[in-house]
Sequence to fold (405 residues):
Amino acid sequence: MTFEIDAFGTIVIAVFVLFIGRILVQKISFLRNYNIPEPVVGGLIAAMVAFALYQFAGISATFSESIQKALMLMFFTSIGLSASFAKLKEGGRSLVLFLFCVAGFVLVQNAVGMSLAKALGLDPLIGLIVGSITLTGGHGTAGAWGTILESEHGIQGAVVLGMASATFGLVIGGVIGGPVAKFLIKRHKLATEGAHDEHDDTPAAEESAAFEFPRKTRLITSNNAITTLGMFSLCIFVANWMTEVSKGQWFELPTFVWALACGVLLRNFLEHVVKVKIFDRAIDVFGNASLSLYLVMALLSLQLWLLADLAGPLVIILLLQMVTLALYTSFVTFKVMGSNYDAAVLAAGHCGFGMGATPTAIANIQAVTNTYGPSHKAFLIIPLCGAFFIDIINAVVIQTIIKFF
Fold:
């Protein structure tokens, strides 16, 4: 029996699950100490309950895809609206170094997946599916490339396999980021837990990066909220229109990329041409709210029973990918980025979109900084890298590899 939940019901359930995650993180020291994001905790509990209901009672639910898509587009729009060209320039050398770390891991991830697949007697392209297609690319990339691999390369069940792998990545990416950062911070004595709570070190709004202080007070009037909602709506409207216009064309891109790009253009046009001061705090609040709800809904919608259908070899590949990511971020990303506190937070963020998605990466670094203190560099670099560059890097690598098979 399958229940269909409408948009309002989906929001109610998502908020309830998010509150459960928040309570569990507050009450369970393990979750709090290892900086597991609240949306991941609540969403994972809900997904496990859904799995049990499906397995033992044959009950499942489908949630509103429209509201989940809208929240995802709002999140990526908020990144675009927060991306001032001045901040992009501020990223400078650190952003370039981090991009090299990310690009290097995409290559490592595919090498691990394809070599293990071949060693286990599977088609190497299956290793690519259980590589950057799903773990770096996420569910959207999994669906797009899965269809191509099924129709053009004869990989049966590529879409289902991709969705299951992306499911695993989304969960694990949100689980291992905090522990990796905690290990690095403790081992190198980079920060003291809770020390930053003794004073308010929040910078002025124009000096902070997107999503940097989600728990600080946001003084927003109705006029600010209406103006901000108007900017979000304009960006998403244009993104949907451009998706239709570009369909089948050489410049075809996913809707979220158009939303993000529109946000960047609108922000910098208003800021540098019209000379309008952008109210970043309102954008921050809209973005953080959509981020938390989107992550919960994504986990609510995941069919964990697909993982139960994976063959043993594929589970082995996924587990080794997890170990590889933890080692890479600890000994490569951390070292390249300077072996300091900012580098540890960046490592947590890299875990987020190395086996999940940009929202997971943001949630990871928020969880770490809520415990150990702010990291302006991480909140500057992670959104820019995750939104602007990682999908481009991943697409180029995947396309190049597939040409040889």
